[in-house]
Amino acid sequence: MTPIFIIDRDRVERAIMDLGAIGACAGTGVSRTTFSPEWVAAQELVGQWCRDAGLAVRMDAVGNLWGRAEGSAGGKAIATGSHIDSQTPGGRYDGALGVIAGAIAARAVLEQAGPPKRPIEIVSLCEEEGSRFPSAGFWGSRGIIGTIAPEDPERIVGYDGVTIGEAMRAVGLDPARIPDAARDDLEVFLELHIEQGPMLEQAGTPVGVVTGITGIRELRVVVHGRADHAGARPIDLRQDPMDAAAAMIHAVIGVAKEMGRPAVTTVGRILVEPNFPNIVPERVEFTIDSRNPDPEARRQQYARQDALLREIAEAAGLEMTTEVFGALDPCPCDPEVVRVLEEAARAQNVPVMSMPSGAVHDSQQLAARSRIGMIFVQSKDGRSHTPAEFSAVEHCAQGIEVLAGALYRLAY
Amino acid sequence: MTPIFIIDRDRVERAIMDLGAIGACAGTGVSRTTFSPEWVAAQELVGQWCRDAGLAVRMDAVGNLWGRAEGSAGGKAIATGSHIDSQTPGGRYDGALGVIAGAIAARAVLEQAGPPKRPIEIVSLCEEEGSRFPSAGFWGSRGIIGTIAPEDPERIVGYDGVTIGEAMRAVGLDPARIPDAARDDLEVFLELHIEQGPMLEQAGTPVGVVTGITGIRELRVVVHGRADHAGARPIDLRQDPMDAAAAMIHAVIGVAKEMGRPAVTTVGRILVEPNFPNIVPERVEFTIDSRNPDPEARRQQYARQDALLREIAEAAGLEMTTEVFGALDPCPCDPEVVRVLEEAARAQNVPVMSMPSGAVHDSQQLAARSRIGMIFVQSKDGRSHTPAEFSAVEHCAQGIEVLAGALYRLAY
Predict the structure, then answer these.
(1) DSSP state letter for B161
(2) How many CB pairs under 8 A join A and B?
(3) Which of A243, A248, A262 sits opposite B253 (nearest CB)?
(4) Which of A46, A407, B143, B324 has a 20 to 30 Å separation from A159 between CA atoms?
(5) Are residues A401 and A16 in contact, defined by beta-carbon separation less than 8 angstroms?
(6) Which chain B residues have a beta carbon less than 8 Å from that of A228?
(7) Which of A303, A328, A353 is the last residue of a domain?
(8) What confidence tens digit (pLDDT) does each residue in A144-171 have?
(9) CB distance B218–A277 less than 8 Å?
(10) What is the pTM of this model?
(11) pLDDT bracket for residue A20 (50, 70, 90)
């Protein structure tokens, strides 16, 4: 008979507090950047949790910490985890909760059900956020799928001016060995993560089973105009990039508003030159972050937005350049893994709802080498990347119970 | 019989080059901030020109340099001039040309027509631009009309951290004596200035006679939203200040486009918090510089813009705050002075056209204490506040001929 796993709420709360204390800042905030002393201390704490759970611990060549229980039948592993690096400052939950969940769920399953048939691994991934090395997001998961280029360690520079290669060497890692981190023996990767949005809270549901991860395109748009005196140049003789950029921004956000959920579009960043009140700008640059988990709807969303950008630039008679600086295709979760998660939730008596992920995650990278599934835990007010990030211990524990049930179903 | 004044083109060119050499930068640029060593040297050069023209020279308590020829019949003075401080960098013409014009025109008139009946004064005003002390624009002309507050010298701080009072003391001026700079004995103030716009060039006319100076309102708008994850917060649950700000910017510029000349509206400055591509902004701040020389049209322009701002904020359900940080009422030029300028142009055989000024000028301040008139000289490509600023010597000399003719008509 399939066992029920009851997760101790106090143990969950203690783990959140203990990990949150490493790099604590701004009250309930955390600032823990990859390869920093705080990150080293956090990986050591995770290693201790793994040993307490009876797992064999190692750090791979890229900086991920793994704990492993061998399976009596061998074969590919059932892995779970997330990342412990944070935004600066971030909160106690984004990423960290998935590592805590892995350690606690693995311990519960091993204690209650004994040695598994298939190997179980938990992993604490590094530099998901790119908060120290802005162009090295998903460093740990990219190491596992083997997409780090040989020149990356010396090419990628952090906000502190240090290359990621130097930072690795400072914590005892050899960048030349990065290819050793690649894995082709992961059967399933499960990631528990806070939702970072308001849907579960609004539905009054503690846990979500993710059906797929959104596709994203990050576009940099530059509108070139002509700087002019704000008074002396008649309105009909201007080449005003601000007027055109404003029309573009309102139009591309309007596409997502009209399409409705799950389409989203965000213009979060604008740079204006010269940015003086009484000079018509020479140049306006802005970013468009546009997401949709449905491949066909996403294609239409980008096509409509691109057409509007072109039409507005042409109508204004202004030169416009665009550049894609980030893109990830939508990533469906494995249907069989989704079914296992839903079955585990039913058996564990945890209310869940199905939902897409509007945020991007390590799972999206790892999908290249394993079947993936994700569990969301309700976020208070949908906040994340801020010290105000919060999830109730009860909801965290319910998410871990679903994870434990799924680990059992997949590995025993 | 009324004399004709022929201005020596070489003298004009030499004066432009000599003054432009003081604070020269970036090729044809000038960076000459008020009370700097360059400013002191420039005032000394202007003083020398005045003495060469037979004028008595003094610096007033606020930093303006005056040259004066007494009038045989006494009475209030006929004054002309502009400013020698520049943007950083600006060009050789904005402001400077009006000071050069005053010195050369006064010399020509005095040499050719002898002592005047009414006093003639030329003035080199200080800190029109506010390029060293951003809240002290029109410092010199405000000193003349007596609107500098007693606390201003110690309250107003420059970009270099120095108060304007300290900067005055460093060049030998006593801030306590500022009230002594006030004048109530100016009958007429004539200002020659580059157009800073394209109208004269497009019309193929060297000189403009200004009918009035535009009214301006500078508004700071802050739209308050809620920072959210660019992926996890559904589009319909956002409080996105960027979307609303973009709609507002396009709408308020649209009002000026629809009203047409002479209405203009410029959004030159935006500040976004936190300004990251993947975070819905918390707050978007922008400026609206909106101008119209017609008092009633201006009132309607602002009312329509204010209504649009309110409507868009309300429709988005966002809090908006607005603050006026600069305003000048439209300022008609004195009709009798305009008539004199037009008559002088006809007599001097200089083609002119009537036009409003879309830029603000010292004349707007001085209108509080004297009748004003302005002469515009054609600007190449309408450029100003840049080293690319240029006016042909021929056009400059033609403008000075009109100024000389007007000085004669008013003072003899």
Answers:
(1) S
(2) 215
(3) A243
(4) A46
(5) no
(6) 382
(7) A328
(8) 999 999 999 999 999 999 999 999 999 9
(9) yes
(10) 0.89
(11) very high
Could you tell me how far CA B47 lies from the centroid of its own chain?
22
B132 with B278, same domain? no
Query: Using one digit for the tens of pLDDT, what is the confidence trace for B275-328?
Result: 989 899 999 999 999 999 999 999 999 999 999 999 999 999 999 999 999 899
- What's the token pair of residue A358? 């509007």
pLDDT tens digit string along B123-180? 999 999 999 998 899 999 999 999 999 999 999 999 999 999 999 999 999 999 999 9
pLDDT, residue A211, reads: 96
Q: Does B316 contact A at CB distance below 8 Å?
A: no
Residues A33, A131 within the same domain: yes
**Number of neighbours of residue B355 by Cβ within 10 angstroms:** 21
Distance from CA of B120 to the nearest CA of A (A): 30
The average pLDDT across B97-107 equals 98
Contacts of B216 in chain A (CB under 8 A): 231
Structurally, chain B folds into a number of domains equal to: 2
**Judgement on whether residues B60 and B117 belong to the same structural domain of the protein:** yes
3-state SS of A136-193 is CCCHHHHHHHCCCCCCHHHHCECCCCCEHHHHHHHCCCCHHHHHHHCCCCEEEEEEEE
Tokens describing residue A53: 């759970």
Is residue A20 domain-shared with residue A100, that is, in the same domain? Answer: yes
A90 touches chain B (CB under 8 A): no
A59 & A173 share domain: yes
Between chains, do A228 and B280 touch, taking CB under 8 Å as contact?
no
Q: How confident is the model at residue A405 (pLDDT cuts 50, 70, 90)?
A: very high
Q: Is residue A1 part of a domain?
A: no
- To which H or E segment does residue B67 belong? strand B65-69
In chain A, the residue whose alpha carbon lies closest to the alpha carbon of B259 is A235
- Do the chains contact at A269 and B269, CB–CB below 8 Å? no
Residue of A243, A298, A308, A360 to mutate when probing chain B, most B C-beta within 10 A: A243
Percent above pLDDT 90 for chain A:
95
Instruction: Please tell me if residue B349 touches chain A, with a CB cutoff of 8 Å.
Output: no
Facing residues of B28 across strands? none
- The C-alpha atoms of residue B354 and residue B358 are separated, in whole angstroms, by 13
Q: Rounded to whole angstroms, how far apart are CA atoms B381 and B197?
A: 7
Q: What is the pLDDT confidence band of residue B385, given thresholds at 50, 70 and 90?
A: confident
Nearest to B236 among A235, A260, A274 (CB): A260
**Chain A partners within 8 Å of B232 (Cβ):** 195-197, 357-359, 379, 382, 384
* A266-289 confidence digits (pLDDT tens): 999 999 999 989 899 999 999 999
Question: Is B235 within 8 Å of A261 when comparing Cβ atoms?
Answer: yes
Element (H, E) at A303: helix A295-316
Interface touch B357/A279, C-beta < 8 Å: no
Domain boundary among the residues B328, B345, B378 is at B328
Q: Tell me whether residues A240 and B195 touch, CB distance under 8 A.
A: no
Alpha-carbon dihedral of residues A50, A53, A55, A58, nearest 10 degrees? 10
Residue B3 belongs to some domain of the structure: no
Please tell me if residue B332 touches chain A, with a CB cutoff of 8 Å. no
C-alpha B327/C-alpha B18 separation (Å) is 35
Rounded to an integer, the average pLDDT of A332-346 is 98
Is A327 part of the contact surface with chain B (CB cutoff 8 Å)?
no
**Do A214 and B231 make contact, defined as CB atoms within 8 angstroms?**
yes
Instruction: Mark which residues 243-262 of A lie under 8 Å from B by CB.
Output: 243, 245-250, 253-254, 256-257, 260-262
Residues B167, B207 within the same domain: yes
Tell me, what's the pLDDT at A262? 93
Q: Convert the pLDDT of each residue in A34-67 to its tens digit.
A: 999 999 999 999 999 999 999 999 999 999 999 9
Question: Is B39 contained in some domain?
Answer: yes
Task: Answer for the pair A16, A393: CB distance below 8 angstroms, yes or no.
Answer: yes
Assembly ipTM: 0.88
Sequence-separated (6 or more) residues with CB below 8 Å from residue B49:
B15, B67, B100, B103, B104, B107
Residue A267's CATH number: 3.30.70.360
Q: In terms of residue numbers, what domain contains A254?
A: 215-328
